[in-house]
Design goal:
Blueprint: H1 18-32, H2 37-51, H3 60-69, E1 73-75, E2 82-84, H4 86-100, E3 113-118, E4 122-129, H5 141-152, E5 165-172, E6 175-182, H6 195-212, E7 217-223, E8 227-230, H7 247-259, E9 265-272, E10 278-281, E11 284-287, H8 294-309, E12 314-318, H9 323-336, E13 339-342, H10 348-359
Parallel strand pairs: 6-7, 6-9, 9-12, 12-13
Antiparallel strand pairs: 1-2, 3-5, 4-5, 7-8, 10-11
């Protein structure tokens, strides 16, 4: 006979239907299974067996039916394969955003404010007297007409330069960001899953930018032996490969992307857990996994210096603490005049969020 069963109190689950509770867990598992629905459901069944996630009124089969009917999964009519839908992909990004940037407050779209007044998108409530150099578009005619009536009377209405009032607007920065993610084999070595936190951060950052800063751009670059871009919708499916770490290829692709962006403010975020170990020389891969290779390291430093000349800061998030790796990151960062964080996996999102948000508060001249 089963008596009282005590569980930990979770205020976030209070009032949620059983489907919503299971959906939260399902979304989390999809990130770990790289979007594989079958594997995620196998985990769900194992967890249900161990922790009694369902009851007699609502079973795991009911949950699967609801996933279909609500548009979270779809089935290929030819081979019977079940896949997640774009609705689920966005849901995973939203949940990553809530998990990592949970304390973020909503503001108006594109709200990257600086402390410099001038021509911009957001109207400042303050006004000032007209000065030489102010444009006609900045004149607040309501206030100016009011001044003219007070200063000269209604019967003989006239407006002088001294009557004009200017309504200032605030500059807003637009930023083009490239997020580089290391997908070399070391991201899953030694029994530590480093790629899943990196994916969560990428999904959260993409959702943050597309919803709160829609005038910004975000490009995702993954790098192993080579480097290539991935779409935001592809992030849940991102996997580590049997690759070395070609940081040079990642930086070159990031710089090529940013050269095409019109925004004056550009930056690179790089998430990695190791040293660069690979170069592509012609059609041949030059590799050295033993210590810091001077040939590879010099190429990295040269690119860091080039980014500095182009005013592209590089912020490196190193999720490893080996002393010689820290020396590499330190020298690389000093060459670029960028920033470096030696972040634990559980703090990675907070580090990136703080750095991203602080960069938006700089005055742009």
């Amino acid at each position: 006979m089963l008596g009282h069963r005590f569980t930990g109190f979770d205020p976030d689950q209070q009032g949620k239907p059983r489907f919503e509770q299971l959906l939260d867990l399902f979304m989390q598992l999809l990130t770990y299974t790289n979007g594989d629905v079958s594997e995620a459901m196998s985990w769900m069944n194992e967890l249900d067996k161990k922790y009694q996630l369902t009851d007699g009124d609502y079973g795991m089969g009911d949950f699967i039916d609801d996933l279909r009917s609500k548009g979270y999964i779809s089935e290929d009519q030819q081979n019977g394969e079940i896949k997640i839908t774009p609705k689920t992909e966005q849901g995973i990004r939203k949940r990553s955003l809530e998990e990592i940037f949970g304390k973020l407050r909503k503001t108006k779209s594109g709200n990257h404010q600086t402390f410099k007044p001038g021509v911009g998108d957001e109207i400042n409530p303050e006004t000032k007297p007209f000065q030489f150099g102010d444009t006609l578009e900045q004149i607040d005619f309501t206030e100016s007409i009011r001044n003219a009536q007070i200063n000269h009377g209604i019967d003989s209405f006239r407006m002088h330069e001294d009557d004009l009032q200017i309504r200032e607007t605030d500059f807003k920065t637009q930023t083009s960001t490239v997020l580089m993610i290391d997908i070399s084999h070391s991201m899953i070595l030694y029994g530590e899953d480093r790629i899943t936190p990196a994916k969560k951060v990428a999904m959260a950052l993409s959702e943050l930018i597309t919803t709160r800063y829609p005038k910004d751009t975000l490009d995702i670059v993954v790098f192993g032996n080579d480097a290539w871009t991935v779409e935001i919708k592809d992030l849940p499916y991102l996997q580590v490969g049997p690759y070395h770490t070609n940081t040079v290829a990642g930086l070159e692709l990031a710089m090529e992307i940013l050269r095409k962006r019109k925004n004056p403010n550009k930056q690179i975020f790089m998430i990695t857990d190791g040293k660069p170990t690979c170069l592509k020389v012609g059609k041949r891969y030059y590799k050295n996994s033993f210590g810091i290779d001077r040939k590879i390291f010099t190429r990295c430093l040269n690119l860091a210096a080039q980014c500095k000349k182009l005013k592209i800061p590089i912020t490196t998030f190193m999720i490893a603490t080996d002393p010689y790796l820290q020396r590499f990151v330190t020298e690389f960062t000093e060459t670029n005049n960028g920033k470096a964080f030696f972040a634990s996996l559980d703090k990675l999102g907070a580090f990136i969020f703080r750095d991203f948000e602080s960069g938006k508060r700089k005055t742009v001249y």
